[in-house]
From TrEMBL:
Range of residues in the leader sequence: none
One protein family per Pfam: Methyltransf_25
Protein name as annotated: Methyltransferase domain-containing protein
Entry keywords, A to Z: Methyltransferase, Transferase
One of the record's GO molecular function terms: methyltransferase activity
Transferase recorded as keyword: yes
Domain Methyltransferase residue range list: 41-133
Organism: Tunturiibacter psychrotolerans
Gene Ontology biological process terms, A to Z: methylation
Lineage: Bacteria, Pseudomonadati, Acidobacteriota, Terriglobia, Terriglobales
């Protein structure tokens, strides 16, 4: 498998087994979106379509978009067996092709995979263009990793991978902004911020830390040969065990989410 210089790679089976909590814990941001029947909604970074399907079940007309071919293949399979009706498109979030087509743009646990400020500026410009300016209820509602997200895990990985001459932070290329920074980016893109907040959300990992690392830091760990990868994972788990694992062997990830609701200015 050819791996990009930075970023994340996705194994859809591993994500389904180890990452389903991402959609399960999205109740708060979905409530903030408050989807209405008949609304046209774009689900940005839809992944395997689990949450897209939930949005469509409200009666909204939902289009999912994602850059991962493997995730979209899983979403297409979901469409075939779903009682709800929705569609998915293959586009990069920084190059959205839509023009005044949607009443709302929604995103959950996807925007932090967009690299750097310039990537977010391009994405926000495309989201602004995609919304229907004639609709006073047009909105962008999203939740993503925020400042301090998985800080302990990232610190442990950085320490573990340094001897292998890998900069875990630079390779992961995740973007976890403060509310102040993201407010500025939204306002510069032509949005009015109705609400924006950091939400600490310690998240149980029923399948443990090893499964989380191999699912959500696959793009980093793929830089190693199988032996070194196993060593790195073992060493990372050893560093994290006193912090994130309780006496009964239950693991919790130190998630911090950034949730916002923005409207067209």
């Amino acid at each position: 498998m050819t791996t990009p210089a930075t970023g994340q790679t996705w194994n859809t089976e591993a994500y389904a087994a180890n990452g389903r909590f991402v959609a399960t814990l999205a109740g708060g941001v979905v409530a903030l979106l408050a989807p209405q029947a008949g609304e046209h909604i774009l689900d940005l970074g839809c992944g395997d379509g689990a949450l897209t399907e939930q949005l469509a079940a409200t009666g909204a007309i939902v289009t999912g978009v994602d850059a991962s071919p493997s995730m979209l293949a899983a979403a297409h399979e979901r469409i075939l067996r779903s009682p709800a009706s929705f569609s998915v498109d293959h586009h990069d979030a920084t190059a959205l092709p839509y023009n005044h087509q949607f009443d709302a743009v929604f995103s959950n646990a996807a925007l932090h995979w967009i690299t750097g400020i310039s990537g977010h500026q391009a994405m926000l410009s495309g989201v602004h263009r995609a919304l229907r300016s004639e609709n006073p209820q047009a909105r962008f509602v999203a939740e993503m990793g925020g400042h301090g997200n998985v800080a302990a895990i990232r610190t442990a990985l950085q320490a573990t991978l340094t001897p292998f001459h890998i900069d875990a932070e630079a390779t992961a290329a995740s973007f976890f902004p403060t509310p102040a920074l993201y407010r500025r980016l939204l306002e510069s893109a032509g949005f009015t911020v109705q609400s924006i907040e950091l939400i600490p959300r310690p998240t149980p990992l029923p399948n443990g830390m090893e499964s989380w690392l191999n699912t959500f830091r696959n793009g980093v760990l793929d830089r190693l040969n199988p032996h070194d990868r196993a060593v790195a994972v073992t060493n990372t788990i050893a560093l994290l065990e006193p912090i994130l694992c309780d006496a009964n062997g239950n693991w919790t990830a130190d998630y911090v989410r950034l949730r916002f609701h923005a409207t067209l200015r």
